[in-house]
Amino acid sequence: MLVGSGAARADDPHLAVRHGIRGKVPIRLILDARGTIITPDSRVADQSAPTIVVLAPDTHRPALPSHVETLHVEVDAAGRFDLVALLSALRARGIGKLLVEGGPTFAGALMAAGLIDEIVGYVRPAVLGAGRTLIDIPGASNIGDLRVFRLESVEVLGEDVRITARAKRR
After folding, report:
1. What are the distances in angstroms from CA 151 to CA 24, 109, 118, 130, 136?
2. Which of 34, 76, 99, 169 has its CA 20 to 30 A from that of 162?
């Protein structure tokens, strides 16, 4: 389970199995290029799931509990992770599937790079008001930039609806 730096900073997510659900515990991956977001007090620093903090190559390991691993991955001039290098490094560690719990910027970067195979969205019949977009794809601003997915399933889960769609390959 991967979370970008913006979502990690804003939400301090736990990213672990909850509500008495049993099964394989997912590895928590947190993008923190400069090593300033995740601290020993962060919720992902507990021992409820294996945790890897992804850092830029020149970033020293921050003060984290010893059970939290780190992984260094290349970044561009703006400090954004090289997504192909990130996926390659994860694959080398035996991680071949990712559930991304990221914000719109990170999700948009993955979408723009063509690295999203499936979207799982949850909708609740509640209104908060004006908000941010779910996925902010750089340069995508008109119908010609549309990314089309194939609807796989729609499930009602209590008061929520889960929508699953797979990428259409050209």
Report:
1. 27, 22, 10, 26, 21
2. 169
